[in-house]
Design goal:
alpha/beta; FAD/NAD(P)-binding domain; 38% helix; six-stranded mixed sheet; globular
Length: 388
């Protein structure tokens, strides 16, 4: 069996690795001339690490990551609104590990043979029949296989061909991100601070680095004037508890990324014949639960198991869709809901939100997280397909 994967991000590369582990040939076609990620961190939640363990990659990734201790949510003065019992969750599911996106991407690339990755291949569409599928590219080349996977992101070309364009929904807020050098980051906790219409997140990484992100409710399409990003952020978060302003000042102006946040409603299907969707192409979600890449990694492992077990590509993809659509739909909607709560701007609503969070028992907060992480993507017999 040969599978064509469109998109060389975390999901597409993990899918190629998973397929290879089960003896299926996979080739990745990426439109960019080089594989690179922007300067931001990524939290690998326990559910994603369990999936990577199945592929035999978990331990090596853990060795390269910083271990995040979940501290919970604070208000702008630094008062704890809700505390997550990280020790209890770690005993049950494992810790959160934090890695630079570029470092994770490089690690995944190194698991594949160079001839499996084809750069400078922008997909323009595909054709399929009873015998297979053929992908077409802007450079005039084609690629044939038994099946095709669109791992080509929010504005997927593959998805557009068989589902049309879903309504891509602007969340109402934009986000800034950066990674900075910061002494003693290993003593810090993963903390998100909520204000009125804005939030700030602190995520310690390995080697004395911190990944931080900030959000603000604003009109879609806004951009910062050159050289004015840091001053604007310092104004937005003036007076918030330390080390928020210190972290903003530690960032290089040209190393602060700004992106509007989008998602779309759960799709009616992920599959059309021999073609299927994975990652953001299938279920783009806001980053409020830290599950975007984690769900793509889950997708990749389930996809590989389904293709390995089924005799036909079409049947395998339908099984993959059956298993992944309900799980990812729930995460999309939960992430969206949490973002709306966190971005609340009305003073009375914020007071009610903060009061309710302070009164929420730790066990309730832990239960909500447990329902997200306590999910087995494969049966024991399926895990054995990967030698796990």
């Amino acid at each position: 069996m040969r599978i064509v994967i469109i998109g060389g991000g975390i999901g597409g590369l993990t899918a190629a690795i998973g397929l290879g582990k089960t003896g299926i040939e996979a080739h990745v076609y990426e439109k960019a001339p080089e594989l690179r990620e922007v300067g931001a961190g990524i939290g690998l939640m326990p559910n994603a690490l369990k999936a990577l363990d199945i592929l035999g990659l978990g331990d090596e990734i853990r060795s390269q990551c910083g271990t995040g201790v979940q501290g919970g949510v604070k208000d702008s003065c630094g008062r704890v609104l809700v505390e997550i019992p990280a020790d209890e969750l770690a005993r049950s599911f494992g810790s959160v590990f934090v890695v630079h996106r570029a470092e994770l991407l490089a690690f995944l690339v190194n698991q594949l043979r160079p001839e499996q990755i084809h750069l400078g291949h922008a997909c323009t569409g595909f054709e399929q029949n009873a015998d297979g599928v053929v992908a077409r590219f802007e450079n005039g080349e084609t690629a044939s296989g038994d099946g095709l996977i669109g791992a080509d992101g929010l504005r997927s070309t593959v998805r557009k061909q068989f589902l049309g364009d879903p309504v891509i929904r602007y969340s109402g807020y934009t986000a800034w991100r950066s990674v900075v050098d910061f002494a003693n980051s290993d003593r810090m906790s993963i903390v998100e601070t909520w204000g009125r219409g804005r939030r700030f997140g602190i995520v310690p990484m390995s080697r004395n680095r911190v990944y931080w992100f900030a959000t603000n409710t604003t009109a879609e399409g806004g951009r910062d004037r050159e050289g004015e990003t840091k001053p604007a952020l310092l104004k937005l978060f003036q007076g918030w508890h330390e080390p928020i302003e210190t972290l903003i000042r530690a960032a290089r102006e040209d190393a602060i990324l700004r992106n509007d946040i989008y998602d779309f409603d759960p799709l009616p299907r992920f599959v059309s014949g021999r073609a299927g969707l994975l990652g953001d192409a299938a279920h783009a979600m806001t980053p409020n639960l830290g599950q975007g890449a984690c769900q793509a990694i889950e997708d990749a492992v389930v996809l590989a198991a389904c293709l390995r077990q089924a005799g036909k590509v079409e049947a395998a993809l339908l099984d993959y869709e059956r298993r992944r659509r309900p799980r990812t739909a729930e995460v999309v909607l939960r992430a969206r809901s949490l973002g709306k709560i966190g971005q609340a701007a009305n003073p009375a609503m914020c007071w009610l939100r903060d009061t309710a969070m302070r009164l929420t028992p730790r066990q309730v907060a832990a239960k909500q997280i447990r329902s997200l992480l306590d999910f087995e993507i494969l049966t024991p017999s399926e895990r054995s397909l990967f030698g796990y």
